Amino acid sequence: MAATGAATATALAARSRVHRARELRETERHWAAWGYGPPDRSASSRRRAFLVWLLPGLIVATAVAVAVLWTGQANPGRTAAAALTAAGVVSLFFVLAIADTARGHAVRRGKAPTGSIRP
User: Fold this and answer.
1) Closest to 46 (Cα-Cα) out of 106, 117, 114
2) Mean predicted confidence (pLDDT) in 25-29
3) Could you give the CA distance from residue 40 to residue 43 in angstroms, rounded to a whole number?
4) Surface-to-core class of residue 38, CB atoms within 10 Å of its CB (0-12 exposed, 13-18 middle, 19+ buried)
5) Span 100-113, pLDDT tens digits
6) N or C terminus: fewer CB in 10 A for the chain?
7) How far apart are CA 64 and CA 90, in angstroms?
8) Which pLDDT tens digit goes with each residue over 38-89?
9) pLDDT at res. 19
10) How far is Cα 51 from Cα 46, in angstroms, rounded to an integer?
């Protein structure tokens, strides 16, 4: 079941990247037709920066939850403490990811052409 899910997710991700690249090329052609420079492609760098923060947060949260559960006898209180601690760690990394991606990553369009507009 997990292998089927992973294969499906991989296939969908590959299809999405191909479709996104096609859309970006089309967008660049449209902007060029109007005489503008192509838009900056900062969206992928924002996603990458987001993943750079979020994925380690998930790994750290898992390690913290395992450490909490490993150090004592299993009971509902310890399980709840592990879950809350992991959620806190993920939340912290999530806030860091949002702050990092929001800082100075505005999408800017190309410069407007000077002179008359072409029909």
Assistant:
1) 106
2) 87
3) 8
4) middle
5) 777 644 444 455 55
6) C
7) 11
8) 766 555 666 677 777 778 888 888 888 888 888 878 788 888 888 898 899 8
9) 92
10) 9
Site of tokens 């109007």: 34
- Judge contact between 8 and 82, C-beta under 8 A: no
CB atoms within 10 A of CB 86: 20
Longest CA–CA separation in the chain, Å: 77
Which tokens in the block code for residue 87? 């959620």
Beta-carbon neighbour count of residue 26 at 10 Å? 10
Sign (positive or negative) of CA dihedral 6, 98, 81, 64: positive
